[in-house]
Design a protein that fits this description.
Elements (H helix, E strand, L loop, with lengths): L2 E4 L15 H14 L3 E5 L5 H13 L4 E6 L3 H9 L4 E5 L4 H8 L3 H18 L4 E5 L8 H14 L3 E6 L12 H14 L5 E6 L6 H10 L4 E4 L13 H11 L1 H4 L8 H12 L16 E2 L2 H9 L16 E3 L7 H10 L6 H15 L7 H11 L3 H5 L12 E3 L6 H6 L6
Bound molecules: zinc ion.
The site of zinc ion has 6 residues, from loops.
């Protein structure tokens, strides 16, 4: 069963301009625990006393997940992580020839000796702590170096080897395939009698982070890293909601009902608010338009059965199919929207209202329920505002919602208005 590591609070804070106060970090962690993720990467305690305190606080507060702390390949970093009570330490050290020679001025043998020494030290101090070793920029480093370092790390006590696509370099189906990389390193380690968990950390520079993570998963990766909104360096990493929904919907035998997915919209709004990174309206799963239909033919079809234009059920994340009224609307969607408001109009009126809505839409606006009543009233000669079952909402909805279950014509025309 694949495990999920959320790194919104560590990788996510590497997004330019993003900073979460300690109390916000704890609130986000509370949500992620309720969502059901396995590991929560809380930060690097050596970076600041505030992060150290947050890791300490979370480690005692969140009993249903394991709090992970980042650590350089240094004993003092390991000491700080263990002293905070972190149950998981992520140690990173690059083993590419370019970096070893050009930046560190060290030989591979020397680097491996240091990595093994720090891991052995951590396991001696706290045998139960989970140790992950990451050869930074794994997929672009010399494979022989990565393998030698991984073997030494596992022999020293590392539980997890993380395959980092640090620059979003991998492309599925090519010779830069995460599927092939994970399969190859697992095979090499197994041939030496070693079976660590394999993690994949995929950056999204080419927009392929989720595809690469799924490639790794299909090849047997045990852990996938993700963050809310895909926050992270540059173009970020795998988006948590897209990952969880895809795993639950498309690999249901292993992953169905593992996570409380209905919490995702709330979590995304919270993280978006405090990171000041807006959720793009066309973002899969959590974007405002992710389950909204505008085109007339589409709306006509989804009022019969939402599955005509959905491959995912929006109720998985507590959402519903929505119909947007604008320049793309057809008479079917107008008739449907009027029906939900309890307004019964003949075809001539519906056509007039449709033309009027299209005119408004061409100005770059959408028409909500309140405005639809005003438009319909104009063509019904003011009878509507005095007599009809018009909505009396405080906050007017932007779109017309329909439930996900298949509706009959009768339900469409007589059902009560639904508000956001
Ligand atoms: Zn990263």
């Amino acid at each position: 069963m694949v495990r999920i590591l959320d790194t919104t609070l560590r990788e996510g804070e590497q997004t330019p301009g993003v900073y979460f106060d300690a109390h916000v970090k704890l609130a986000i962690a509370d949500y992620l625990e309720r969502l059901g993720i396995d590991y929560l990467e809380a930060g690097h305690p050596a970076v600041s006393e505030e992060i150290e305190e947050v890791v300490r606080h979370m480690s005692s507060r969140h009993a249903n997940l394991t709090v992970a702390a980042h650590s350089r390949n240094l004993r003092e970093d390991v000491d700080r992580a263990i002293d905070c009570g972190a149950g998981f330490i992520g140690i990173f050290y690059c083993v590419s020839n370019d970096r070893l020679n050009g930046v560190f001025g060290k030989s591979l043998d020397h680097a491996i000796e240091q990595i093994s020494g720090v891991i052995e030290y951590a396991k001696t101090r706290e045998p139960n702590v989970i140790i992950r070793y990451t050869p930074e920029d794994t997929v672009r480093s010399d494979f022989g170096n990565v393998l030698r370092a991984a073997v030494a790390a596992v022999r020293a006590g590392a539980d997890i080897i993380s395959i980092a696509d640090t620059t979003g370099h991998m492309v599925p189906g090519t010779d830069r395939s995460m599927f092939e990389f994970v399969r190859k390193i697992k095979g090499e380690l197994e041939s030496q009698g070693l079976g660590p968990m394999i993690a994949v950390h995929c950056h999204n520079d080419r927009g392929l982070a989720l595809a690469n993570a799924l490639d790794g998963y299909r090849a047997g990766a045990d852990i996938i890293d993700a963050s809310v909104l895909g926050l992270g360096e540059r173009a970020g990493i795998v988006d948590l909601a897209q990952l969880l929904v895809t795993l639950a919907a498309d690999f249901p035998e292993e992953n169905g009902n593992r996570w409380d997915l209905e919490l995702l919209p709330e979590i995304y709004e919270l993280v978006s608010r405090y990171s000041r990174i807006p959720i793009p309206s066309n973002f899969p799963i959590t974007g405002a338009n992710a389950f909204t239909h505008c085109a007339g033919m589409h709306t006509h079809a989804v009022t019969k059965d939402p599955r005509h234009y959905h491959s995912l059920d929006p109720s998985m994340v507590g959402r519903t199919t929505e119909i947007c009224l604008d320049h793309m609307s057809g008479s079917a969607s107008i008739k449907h929207a009027l029906g939900r408001l309890g307004i019964h109009a003949d075809n001539g009126i519906v056509d007039s209202v449709t033309a009027h809505v299209k005119d408004v839409g061409r100005k770059g606006r959408t028409v909500n329920e309140e405005e639809l009543v005003f438009i319909a009233d104009m063509y019904l000669d003011n009878r509507l505002l005095h007599n009809a079952n018009q909505p009396k909402t405080r906050e007017r909805p932007r779109t017309i919602r329909i439930p996900q279950n298949v509706m009959s014509e009768n339900e469409i025309s007589t059902g009560p208005p639904m508000y956001r």
